[in-house]
Amino acid sequence: MFHLTLLFLVVVFLRVDFFFTVLYFLLGVYVLSRTWARRSLGNLRADRSYVDRAFTGDRVPVHVRIENRGWLPVPWLEVTESLPLEVRDVTMKTRVLSLGAHETYDFSYTLACRRRGLYEIGPLRLRTGDLIGAQGTVNATVASGRITVYPRVVSLERLGIPTRSPLAMLPARSPLFEDASRLMGVRDYQRGDSQRRIHWSATARADRLVVKKYQPAIARETVICLDMDEEDYGARRRHDAIEMAIVVAASVANYVVVNEGLPVGLCTEAIDPLVGERTQLTLPPRSEHTHLLMNLLETLAHVRATTGTSFPEMVHRESVRFSWGTTVVLVTGRESPELFDTLLLLRRGGFTATLVLIQPGLPSEGLRQQSDVLGVRVHRVWTDSDLEAAW
Predict the structure, then answer these.
(1) β-strand pairing of 145-150 with 117-121
(2) CA-CA distances (angstroms) from residue 186 to 170, 181, 192, 355?
(3) Do residues 110 and 60 make contact, with C-beta atoms less than 8 angstroms apart?
(4) Distance between CA 323 and CA 172 in Å, rounded?
(5) What is the pLDDT of residue 332?
(6) Fewer CB atoms < 10 Å away: N or C end of the chain?
(7) Inter-helix orientation angle 337-348/365-374, to 10°
(8) Which residues are within 8 A (CB) of 275 and not within 5 positions of it... i.e. 6 or more apart?
(9) How many other C-beta atoms lie within 10 A of the C-beta of residue 214?
């Protein structure tokens, strides 16, 4: 624009008709280029499609489509996609292309999900202009997307859990519901009783309608208490230790829901990036697969380590919400007198407690004696092989 202004002043000063013709021509080219570039960019539509949830180690294909919905061709278009290093498969190259009227351009790339987390995909930047450079480039962006990478899950079938699982049906102190496999007698028929409960042979002997009476029972619930205070994990490979603790929590939860079909919950205090600050994250026990994927594993994918929390205090505080007979799995990196006091309180409260320590080596003799006194199973996990042999 500066050069056109300068040329206009020269033409006015010289008053030569040929120069006026050149000025009008260049002015027309400038206006046309400016309008062309902006209208072309306004008629572009771009979108990306991909699966927005994956597990650690997965490779997720991303398909990008750019469409020119206008009648004006796009002489050149520069396309750049921004990706975080944690999911970038290869170095993303800038693409330069041209699009005719109502033409589309498709390309694909792959996300390598190397670490759990919540990642921003994009933004996708589009830049275009005219061919002669009379108009500067114009830019547009396509909004970012997100992908949630779940933590690694080790199949608990490889962990050697005892056959006599503590997650079975247990007699209940209060009749929450009845176990149809445990007949404990008969009672007189009452209005509203299902005909399927009628005990016909006993009815014939008693000469009146009687129904089966079952033993009341509750389903064993499991709550995983995860310590996310980085100070509770050794300085040596602290990040790896915290990630292993999350893998343990995810693997136990997956087994309880998928293999046992029983409720599992989660309790932890950590930094939630969706909130932007440290928060208490409590998921009540549920047995649905959607709860496992959409709630529990997604929470484990998001959480980040924090400092200044007291894991034993958190467990003690949350234990008042646990149902009687709940199996409590504590995953932490440090044993302490406060932790053993909490384990003792859990035992006295009618809970079954299991302690998983994210530490290298075998349990010390003192730790074994302490766990025997409390009646608590203690496992040390540091590597995948430890995790496979833990139970």
Answers:
(1) antiparallel
(2) 21, 14, 16, 42
(3) yes
(4) 11
(5) 94
(6) N
(7) 20
(8) none
(9) 17
Express each pLDDT in 155-171 by its tens digit: 766 443 333 334 344 44
Q: Which of 288, 223, 290 is nearest to 261 (CA)?
A: 288
Residues 150 and 300: their CA atoms lie apart, in Å, by 7
Closest CA to 246 of 179, 299, 189, 315: 299
Q: What would the pLDDT profile of 232-283 be if each residue is shown by its tens digit?
A: 998 778 999 999 999 999 998 988 888 878 889 999 999 988 878 899 999 9
Backbone φ and ψ of 258, nearest 5°: -75, -45
Take residue 112 and report the two structure tokens written for it. Answer: 């390598």
Q: CA-CA distances (angstroms) from residue 317 to 115, 242, 314, 326, 355?
A: 32, 22, 5, 15, 17
CB 256 within 8 A of CB 222: yes
Assess contact for 135 and 30: CB atoms under 8 A: yes
Residue 295 DSSP symbol: I
Host H or E run for residue 253? helix 238-255
